[in-house]
TrEMBL record:
Active site: 158 (proton donor/acceptor)
The family this protein is said to belong to: Belongs to the peptidase M15D family.
Alphabetic keyword roster: Cell wall biogenesis/degradation, Dipeptidase, Hydrolase, Metal-binding, Metalloprotease, Protease, Zinc
Gene Ontology biological process terms from the UniProt entry: cell wall organization; proteolysis
Sites marked Transition state stabilizer: 67
Native organism: Thalassospira profundimaris
Protein name, as recorded: D-alanyl-D-alanine dipeptidase
Cofactor entry: Zn(2+)
Length: 188
């Protein structure tokens, strides 16, 4: 299996899987279990990013990573906006385990100001957006530098989304049944 579980201890990150809560744009949990998986290639890049973040005095907070195809369908059915939600018929880099949504924490564990919230479907969420504070822009640029230096590429309309290059052509899609312990349904 190409997906590996990401743990706070091994990767020196904080994990807050928002889609396992009601703190996402649907207002309801999408995952039954708040698990964090990435393709082994993306996991290796995450380790690099975590080390770089630490050298800069910040820490990564992971908000979403691998997203089963079943979850992608639920998100699309709720909000079929192709700028912010990938059509499940095409597949998402998240569904391949090579995309990650994240933010930065300061040394006290407080989220840095990024100008908008995670999953805020607004032009102010775009990289290079005008109308955000200088502090938020600096924080976004710090995250961008860390993630790109670690081997990820950015998605231009979401400051929080990073993925491996050529994700749709290099990596297969995975479903919930690909996991030993499912995220979308009760194990058993």
């Amino acid at each position: 299996m190409a997906l590996v579980e990401i743990t706070p201890q091994e990767y020196d990150v904080e994990i807050d899987i928002v889609y396992a809560t009601d703190r996402n744009f649907t207002g309801a949990p999408i995952y039954l279990r708040p698990a964090c998986y990435l393709h082994q290639d993306a996991a290796a890049c995450l380790k690099k990013a975590s080390l770089m973040a630490r050298r800069q005095g910040v820490k990564l907070r992971l908000l979403d990573a691998f997203r089963p195809q079943e979850a992608q369908r639920a998100l699309w059915n709720h909000t079929p906006n192709a700028d912010f939600v990938a059509n499940p018929d095409i597949g998402s880099p998240h569904g391949r385990g090579v995309a990650i949504d994240l933010t930065l924490l300061d040394q006290n564990g407080k989220e840095l100001d990024m100008g908008t919230g995670f999953d805020e479907m607004d032009p102010k969420s775009y990289h290079g957006a005008e109308g955000i504070s200088k502090t938020a822009e600096s924080n976004r640029l710090l995250l961008l530098g860390i993630m790109v230096s670690a081997g990820f590429e950015f998605y231009h309309v979401e400051w929080w989304h990073y993925q491996l290059p050529n994700a749709r052509t290099r990596y297969p899609l995975f479903s919930d049944s690909s996991l030993k312990y499912p995220m979308m349904r009760a194990a058993g």
